[in-house]
């Protein structure tokens, strides 16, 4: 008799709720009992589990965040934490699990798989930093949020003919900055995959100003520079007034886009179906519009493998 647990782990991402809904509804369809695990792996270790039915998830698909709550759990990184988690799963009779999260969360999924639990991962992180899938849940919504913010910043930049340096999230992956620029917002971009020096940023900005473009957005991925140092450097060299804006957590919340909700639903359904077919230790993804699943052990973060996509910008940002 199959009994399924579902949890969200790591940073929340829009679309997590839609994925939970799809998992619960699909399980219900197959008469599988589902337990929601609150607060990610931490909640699992602490035994925070409760029964989830179809009606519990009727109104969550359009909500940001995760109604199951989430955590980054240091205890689960240790063997002792995982043993505790395993014993809770045994107590509840849970032998199948769906984990919705990013790379760190998938490491835990792999560990549980090795301990004999049947597990499938669903990629959810606004950073889109997983190499095996074109998109992770949350990325599209966050990109749209960023574009909305950049549009507003552009209005005021244009009115005052000013430059703003905008820092976006992404951890060590430049996709959010890169796709924002591809979507038309950003004159100069610097990402971990193609990091510009302060001097290079200055020289590109100088060229833009000399060509008559006085309002400019400089997009940078977080964790690369101190934004105030960059502002000061540019102002000292170019005699222009530069503003800064760190978009911060506004990027992570909000109603998931149609794209994220649909992808989440497809992935949630697929995850349960894979478990029903006897698969474990797999991560669901999407590649060139096809749903795929890969060995979760082989899932890595993208980091610096994105230079091809950056080169797409060479012509339009020249
Ligand atoms: O992984 C999602 C993300 O929002 C990153 O973009 C960011 O670097 C990080 O999480 C922030 O994490 P925390 O919520 O732990 O501060």
TrEMBL record:
Pfam families: PFK (PF00365)
Catalytic activity: beta-D-fructose 6-phosphate + ATP = beta-D-fructose 1,6-bisphosphate + ADP + H(+)
Residues binding substrate: 125-127, 169-171, 222, 243
Activity regulation, short description: Allosterically activated by ADP and other diphosphonucleosides, and allosterically inhibited by phosphoenolpyruvate.
Any GO molecular function: AMP binding
Summary of subunit composition and partner proteins: Homotetramer.
Domain Phosphofructokinase: 3-275
EC primary class: transferase
Name the UniProt record assigns to this protein: ATP-dependent 6-phosphofructokinase
Family: Belongs to the phosphofructokinase type A (PFKA) family. ATP-dependent PFK group I subfamily. Prokaryotic clade 'B1' sub-subfamily.
Active site: residue positions: 127
Function: Catalyzes the phosphorylation of D-fructose 6-phosphate to fructose 1,6-bisphosphate by ATP, the first committing step of glycolysis.
